[in-house]
Amino acid sequence: MRAVHSVLIAAALAAAVPAFAQQPRIEDRLTAAEFRDAGLGKLSDAELARLNALLARGASTAPSATAAPDVEARIAQAREEGRREAQGEDHGLRQAASREPVESTIPGAFAGFARGREYTLANGQVWKQTDSASIAGARGQDIGVQIRPGFMGVWWLQVDGYNTRAKVERVR
């Protein structure tokens, strides 16, 4: 049964290949008046053969001549809108507005790290801890912090006087 299917597929392909391989010549595409008005009658046989070869080569990669011109304009417009949207998009609050480190303080009491805890900085930013890092017995008042960017959009919060860092994401 498979052999029969293979033979049928091969026969269909053999019949279809010449239709795709043979492109109509420029002389067949144009009327005699169009051919003459385009100045193609001045070409030698070799030049005409070269033109047909170039047209046949370009036919497989060029956009369809039957496509409406406004389709190409709409595609170009959609590309431009997408590019502008991607450039202006802030990608939510998961990414800070810039990749610059933040240095500030946590006003008031600091009671250590804990998953889900939010840290409000003196500059108004709010960051939430997303990992389970902890600092045993850490306490402080108006403690200094540094928030630095890491690999693949991750941000790390470190408090003055401790080496442990907590993974955080910006909330506001």
Summarize the structure in words.
This protein has five helices and six strands. With 172 residues, it is α+β, with helices and mostly antiparallel strands. It folds into two domains: 2-66, no CATH class; 102-170, no CATH class. The chain has a six-stranded antiparallel sheet, with no helix packed on it. The longest helix is centred in the N-terminal third of the chain and has 20 residues, at 2-21. The protein is elongated and about 95 Å long. The two termini are 67 Å apart.
Describe the structure concisely.
The protein has 172 residues and is an alpha+beta fold.
Using only CA atoms, what is the Rg? Answer: 34 Å
> What is the global morphology?
elongated
Helix content: 25-40%
Low-pLDDT ranges = 92-96
Give the mean pLDDT: 80
SSE run:
HHHHHEEEEEE
Category by helix and strand content: alpha+beta
Which band does the percent of strand residues land in? Answer: 15-25%
Number of domains: 2
The largest beta-sheet arranges its strands as 1-4-5-6-3-2
Our measurement of the CA-to-CA distance between the termini, rounded to an integer number of angstroms, reads: 67 Å
Largest sheet, in brief, is: 6 strands, antiparallel
Q: Figure out the total of helices.
A: 5
List how many beta strands DSSP finds: 6
